[in-house]
Specification:
With about 290 residues, the chain is an alpha/beta fold. It contains 14 helices and 4 strands. It has 2 domains: about 80 residues, Arc Repressor Mutant, subunit A (Orthogonal Bundle), CATH 1.10.10.10; about 160 residues, 3-Layer(aba) Sandwich (Rossmann fold). The protein has a 4-stranded parallel β-sheet, sandwiched between helices. Helix 10 links the parallel strand 2 and strand 3.
């Protein structure tokens, strides 16, 4: 593995953390918490901090896709060179509504490079090509991913790429079984482990349709089922936070980007659809 995007090493560790063995997770947590010190720490020092053996440190690095600890350390040092100086944090955490909202925007703005760290350029191109050329597009998300799926389908339809987003889990599975070769299903699952969404993926795959997944973690049951995986996440997101305090902001931004790319790919078809959509919206505006 040779990560090339700023923040990709740490994003990789966070994304693959849930798939590691318990002892490896402990080592990975040390790598994350001491990332600024890694250049100065030996593999034995990391092992001591994690309460593990040096062999476990090396095995953890390999499980994460690196050749060993030395490669991870060098790549982290390179990542440090990519980073822009962060703005000074406020003297104290804001406790009023305006301060909290402002700090949230600041945090998101600083997190954007990390959101892109695991997004593969080739997978993005394949996803857009597949969605543009598909005969039929099914968009599915359950739980906290459901609103993102409904929004994506509506946006696709408005640019001349008709898409459906059933919200009933049984209806989703029926629709997936009715797909065929040349069709596509776009799945949204932050954890990559939603059982209902997994059933849709299996049904679509069995039917011969292309399966595209948008997720926060690079190694999960759904990534194993998908033909194309688009991984976007908040840089400091943990698996537990994904389940309890989740953010769909990276996925929402990705949808916006895919819509823009599809608009370009569809050309005049998209322009005609947008004009018709604008007429419909104008008819429903009150003067």
């Amino acid at each position: 593995m040779t990560p090339s995007k700023p923040g990709e090493v740490l994003a990789t560790i966070r994304s693959l953390l849930p798939s590691l063995l318990p002892t490896e997770q402990t080592v990975a947590q040390v790598l994350l918490s001491r990332s600024n010190d890694i250049v100065e720490l030996s593999s034995q020092q990391i092992a001591d901090l994690a309460g593990a053996s040096r062999a476990t440190v090396v095995r953890t690095c390999q499980s994460l896709g690196f050749s060993g600890y030395q490669q991870l350390r060098v790549l982290l040092a390179r990542d440090a060179g990519y980073q822009d100086p962060e703005p000074a944090p406020p003297a104290s955490a804001p406790d009023d509504a305006v301060g909290i909202v402002t700090e949230t925007f600041r945090h998101v703005a600083a997190s954007v490079p990390g959101m892109l760290a695991l997004l593969d350029d080739d997978e993005v191109a394949r996803a857009v090509d597949t969605l543009a050329s598909a005969n039929r597009v099914l968009v599915v998300g359950n739980g906290l991913s459901a609103p993102t799926a409904v929004d994506a389908a509506a946006r696709f339809t408005s640019i001349g790429r008709p898409a459906e987003a059933p919200t009933d889990v049984i209806g989703q599975q029926i629709s997936a079984r009715l797909l065929g070769p040349g069709d596509a299903v776009l799945l949204f699952s932050g954890s990559g482990a939603n059982a209902s969404t997994q059933r849709v993926a299996m049904a679509a795959s069995t039917a011969g349709a292309s399966v595209i997944l948008v997720t926060s973690f690079a190694r999960s049951p759904l990534t194993q089922s998908a033909d194309i995986a688009l991984v976007v996440t908040m840089p400091d997101l943990t698996f537990r936070e994904e389940i309890t305090l989740t953010s769909r902001l990276p996925q929402a931004i990705l949808v916006q980007g895919i819509v823009a790319a599809l608009t370009s790919a569809l050309g005049e078809r998209a322009e005609r659809a947008k004009a018709l959509a604008l007429d419909a919206i104008s008819d429903n505006l009150v003067e």
